[in-house]
Amino acid sequence: MEKVFIVHYGEIGLKGKNRAFFEKRLVQNMRRSLKDTGYLEVRRLYGRIAVTLRPDADVAKIRERLGKVMGIVHFEPAYATEQNMDAIKNAALKVVEGKTFETLKVETKRANKNFPLISPEISAQVGAHLLDNTGTRADMHNPDLRCWIEIVEDSAFIYAEKIRGVGGLPIGVSGKVLVMLSGGIDSPVAAWRMMKRGTKAIFIHFHSYPYTDKASLEKTMELAQILAAWNYRTQIYLVPFADIQKEIVTRTPSPFRVLLYRRMMVRIAQRIADEIKADALVTGESLGQVASQTLGNIRAIEDVAEMPILRPLIGDDKADIIDFAQKIGTFETSILPHQDCCSLFVPDHPATNASIDELIEAEENLEIDALVEQALAGVERKVVDV
Length: 386
Ligand code: ATP
Ligand code: MG
What we know:
CATH topology of the largest domain: Rossmann fold
Largest sheet: 9 strands, mixed
Low-confidence stretches: none
Number of domains: 2
Structural class: alpha/beta
CATH architecture of the largest domain: 3-Layer(aba) Sandwich
CATH class of the largest domain: Alpha Beta
Mean pLDDT: 94
Bound molecules: adenosine-5'-triphosphate, magnesium ion
Order of helices and strands: EHEEHEHEHEEEEEHEHEHHEHEHHHHE
Distance between the termini: 32 Å
C-alpha cells in the first residue's frame, strides 16, 4: 500500500489532439509546481493523473501546491494498492480511520474491465468490510462519509476525501498575454483570471521613478512573485514613463492627459507583446469603476491598439474584485500605499469622454514614434520564480 495523490481534471469539450496537449501541459506544470516536495513521479493514467511519493515527501506541501495548479478540478490523497480485494479492503479501512462518521457509502469506478468483479460488487464487499470494522451504517443517499475506489490499469486507488482544485485550463495551453500590471487591486486579479483560462502571463509595468518613489516598482515585483505561484517563471517588463508624461504635460491640453498616457502605454505594450509573441494585452479595467473607465474612454484607448485588449473584470463589481484579491493573496500588497505613475501631473477633472479626434489632434504635438522608441530603449526586464 502506497500513498499517492490522484488528480482529476475537466474533460468537457476536450477531444483528440487538444486533449493530449492539455494533459501533457498539465503534467508538465504539476512537475514544475511539485519540484521541491519530494514527489517521485507524475504519471498520466487513463483520464486521471497519479502523483507517487518518495517516503520523505512533504504531503502538506503537495496538497497546497496541487491546489494552485490551473486545470485541476479536484484531487485526492489516496492509497494505491495491487488489484486484489484484500489489499483494497485494508486500504479502505485505513483511509476512513480517524474520520468521524455514522453512515458511509462506497463508490467504485472500474476503468480496467478485466478485474473479475464489477463495480457494485466491489463497493458491496468493501462496504461490508468497513461497516463490520467500524460499527457504522450504510447510507446510499446522504452518507456522512464517502469512500471511493478506482480500478485503473494495474492499480487500485482508494480515498475518502476529495479536495477542490482551481479548475480552468493548464497555464500555457492558451498562449501568452501581456498583462498591464499597475500595483493596484484590479490588475493582479485580471492576470489571475486570464491565467485560469490557460494563458501564460507576462507583466508590463510603467513607472515614473525617480519622480515617484520606488513603491510602485516594489509592489509590482511582489505581486508578480505572488502570482508566480500559479504562473511559475514570470517575466516583468519595467518601462520608464516619466519622460513621456513630461512631454504630454508640456505639450497637450490637461483634460486629456490620462487618456494620452494610456494610449502611449498601449503603443509601448504592444511592441513588447509582439516581441515576446503574446497575442493580447490585458488590463484590470472594470466598466464605470472610476471616471476614466467609461465606454467612451475604453474606445479612445483601444483606438491605438493593433491587438485585442482583454478586460476580464469589465463586468465585475469592486467588492467582488476585492474578495477575489483576498482569495488569491494579492490584496494586502495591492493596498500598500504607492503613487501610480498616472497620478503624476493629473488634472482634477480628467476628460471622461474625449473624442478620438480630439486626442489625435492633441497628439500632433508629440513625437509619438520617438517617444515609444525611447521608452523601449529604457526597458528593464526582471524574472521572478517560485
Ligand atoms: P488597478 O487596480 O489595476 O490599478 P485601477 O482601478 O487603478 O486599476 P486605472 O488606474 O484606471 O484603474 O487603470 C486601469 C488599468 O490600466 C489597470 O488595471 C492596469 O491594467 C492598467 N494600468 C494603469 N496604470 C498602469 C501602470 N502604471 N502600469 C501598467 N499598467 C497600468
Ligand atoms: Mg490603479
